[in-house]
Specification:
heterodimer, A: mainly beta, 7-stranded mixed β-sheet, B: 11 strands, 0% helix
């Protein structure tokens, strides 16, 4: 089946630094990737939709200058959390939508646990 | 918020019993999907049911959809300890390239031996 990887799986950083998270589709091409955020024991909240070669579409309430998204190729999207603060600590999950899927199926990465000290 | 509600929030059963989780949503949909998430891990797609379908089966899973009530249920039969996880429903109200998922609040299932 389709595999999506995320790197790193865990990251701890100091407040004020920036952190980049990579999302890769390993065996398929994805024109669209999605970035979600999940707080402990809560559901996934969509942050933004990332389209290859164009600007990301952010959900209401998500700061685009805070969460920079780059989708440079059909297999890679990156999320950069700029000037991270403790309240940004969360589990970040990406998904990739397979081209040609009959219902635009999304495949999810394993997630990245971000802890900001 | 467009987020759906799931019920119950937590469910604890013994191995061999059936587990039923319910999901309610707010808008009309194209399809509804169920996902499983082990603690601290990514999501695994379980099953998709289209808006014109009423019931679907996959192994020990049975999903129903009632679009008039805007609700769905997931039944896991003959549960196993390995079924312990969080289960989320996700609705997709759009089609094509505009498709995106809205997740429910989730049910945490604990299956004990």
């Amino acid at each position: 089946g389709a595999v999506v990887s995320q790197h790193p799986s865990r990251v701890i950083c100091k407040s004020g630094t920036s952190v980049k998270i990579e999302c890769r589709s390993l065996d398929f091409q994805a024109t669209t990737m999605f970035w979600y955020r999940q707080f402990p024991k809560q559901s996934l909240m969509l942050m933004a939709t990332s389209n290859e070669g164009s600007k990301a579409t952010y959900e209401q309430g998500v700061e685009k200058d805070k969460f920079l998204i780059n989708h440079a190729s059909l297999t890679l999207s990156t999320l950069t959390v700029t000037s991270a603060h403790p309240e940004d600590s969360s589990f970040y999950i990406c998904s990739a939508r397979s081209i040609g899927s009959s219902y635009n199926e999304q495949f999810f990465g394993p997630g990245t646990r971000l802890t900001v000290l | 918020s467009q987020q759906g509600e799931e019920d119950p929030q937590a469910l604890s059963i013994q191995e061999g019993e059936n587990a039923t989780m319910n999901c309610s949503y707010k808008t009309s949909i194209n399809n509804l999907q169920w996902y499983r998430q082990n603690s601290g891990r990514g999501l695994v797609h379980l099953i998709l049911i289209r808006s014109n379908e009423r019931e679907k089966h996959s192994g020990r899973l049975r999903v129903t959809l009632d679009t008039s009530k805007k609700s769905s249920s997931l039944l896991i039969t003959a549960s196993r300890a390995a079924d312990t996880a969080s289960y989320f429903c996700a609705t997709d109200k759009n089609t094509g390239t505009a498709s995106k998922l809205t997740f429910g609040t989730g049910t945490r299932l604990q299956v004990t031996l």
